[in-house]
Specification:
alpha/beta; TIM Barrel; eight-stranded parallel beta barrel; binds 2-phosphoglycolic acid
Length: 256
């Protein structure tokens, strides 16, 4: 089973509406030669509509960084899945910054994953351990538990729409990335969890990204690992040439 590599740029709270649109207008032609890689940009909510419009016909997909699980309601400040429909293809769920600062839990991650799928949005489910957990040798148990909790109640058919992103918290925005072998090993473990839940066919088809200080200098090494199907990239995705390099190197490593 060949898995289509996927590079998603998570812009976090960077770039205004105008900056986001100007950026993707320049980015699109730079990525045009690499259609074998699925390319996704995740701007801030208020730029989603403009970015989606600017990327029409380019093959580049759009993702949101977060959402609520309810289709509507009295949830001041929140964005519903119904509001993302037609604007976004993907939605990042469970990013460690949302878990740390916005009270995201395994339970809300699971509710959001189900809500995304119910509204034809593809969840990118982010998981990852802290430095203390990593040093205590708890990575596999903790991350495996996050994956199991996030996927509770999802069907095998749902899994075709799901991407999992392994992002060790200690590697996000720190410049301190996990080694390619380390990342490959944890992602292999995650695939094993998916195998245990859904069987070999689903496990072999599920795309699992690495995230955490991914940059052009280390991209080839990550993407050369058999278990790693792509990157969820923060800082480097804010720069035109770096974004292009990430996609080019992914295409090179995977031969697409
Ligand atoms: P980083 O962020 O690439 O800046 O480390 C990754 C992420 O948070 O998704």
């Amino acid at each position: 089973m060949t898995r289509i590599p996927v590079i998603a740029g998570n812009w976090k709270m960077y770039k205004t509406h105008a900056e986001s649109i100007a950026f993707v207008q320049e980015l699109a032609p730079l990525l045009a030669d690499y259609s074998g890689v699925e390319r996704v940009v995740c701007p801030t909510f208020i730029a989603l509509a403009g970015v989606a419009e600017a990327l029409k016909g380019t093959g580049i997909k759009v993702g949101a960084q977060q959402m609520h699980w309810e289709p509507q309601g009295a949830f001041t400040s929140q964005i519903a899945p119904t509001m993302l429909q037609g604007l976004a293809d993907y939605v990042i769920i469970g990013h460690s910054e949302c878990r740390a600062y916005l009270a995201e839990t395994d339970e809300t991650v699971n509710k959001k994953a189900k809500a995304a799928l119910a509204h034809a949005l593809k969840p990118i489910i982010a998981v990852g351990e802290s430095l203390a957990q990593n040093e205590a040798g708890e990575t596999d148990a903790f991350v495996g538990g996050q994956v199991t909790a996030a996927l509770a109640g999802l069907s095998a058919a749902d899994m075709a729409q799901v991407i999992i992103a392994y992002e060790p918290i200690w590697a996000i925005g720190t410049g301190k990335n996990a080694s390619a072998a380390q990342a490959n090993s944890v992602i292999g473990m995650i695939r094993g969890v998916v195998r245990g839940l859904y069987g070999e066919t689903v496990a072999a088809a599920t795309r699992i990204q690495y995230g955490g200080s991914v940059k052009p200098e280390n991209m080839l090494e990550y993407m050369s690992q058999p278990e790693i199907d792509g990157g969820l990239v923060g800082g480097a995705s804010l720069k035109l040439n770096d974004f292009k390099e990430l996609v080019r190197l992914a295409a090179q490593a995977k031969g697409v």
